[in-house]
Amino acid sequence: MELPEEHQLKADLFAQLKLLDLQAVDATLDQLAHRLATLPETVALRELTDRHEDLSARHGRLETEVGDLGREQRKADADVEQVKSRRDRNRQRIEAGQVGDPKQLQAMQHEIETLDKRISDLEDVEIDVMERLETAQAEYAEQSRSLETLATEIEETTAARDLASGDIARLRSDAQAERAILAQEIPEPLSVLYEKLRAQLGGVGVGMIQHKRCSGCQLSIGAADLARMAAAPSDEVLRCEECNRILVRTSESGL
Fold it and tell me: How many domains does the chain have?
């Protein structure tokens, strides 16, 4: 049966060896990308940011609550003062002898008693609002301090993350430069096949025949396949029968 065209590729052995070097550089680039995504500083920064968002939301709700309770307290204070003012006016009129009619005097004294009760009830409300306001203000102040502490931690962790990612970026830049040089020494058909297999096979598109094994899938190569590979011309691009990766012959191949 005729093999697919990609199985009939020819490439100078030097180019095939360069393909192994390219695979090593690509593996380094993959590792650097993974390191960048999983930096401890990145993970820590993500956690700190989540905490900051949650705390900020709570802080915002407390700020609204403090504002509402402040208005409620001012209203309670005003209500108490308004009723006290009316009671005091009645008392002053009575004490000044300005109420001569006994029935009117009796009605005013009764109103004073009613106002005293009303003042007591309003003061209870006032105290309740004051206590709730003090509690909310204390929690708001505590949350404000926690936010300041978190902001400092985020700033420090961001700097550490940037420093660590900067080191990775420099390593990545060096690897990309090396890759560009290597890629120029590999024929396009071989390069296209390599990239296709790399995408299909978890980032590893080529392996070497190493001690009669495929270094890509780590499986032993059968005697018949080894004999065929040993007899193949040096420019023939070999493939692993198990994993389909490109196989390159080296001094360690045992052929």
Answer: 2
Helix axes 13-37, 188-200, angle to 10 degrees: 40
Measured between alpha carbons, how far is 19 from 26 in angstroms, rounded to an integer?
Answer: 10
Asked if residue 42 and residue 28 are part of one domain, the reply reads: no
Which of these three, 138, 172, 206, is where a domain ends?
172
Rounded CA Rg of the chain? 42
243 lies in some domain: yes
7-66 confidence digits (pLDDT tens): 579 999 999 999 999 999 999 999 999 988 889 998 899 999 999 999 999 999 999 999
Based on the fold, state whether residues 167 and 43 are members of the same structural domain. Answer: yes
Domain hosting residue 233, numbered range? 5-36+183-249
229 φ, ψ to 5°? -65, -40
Using DSSP, state whether 157 is helix, strand or coil: helix
pTM metric for this prediction: 0.56
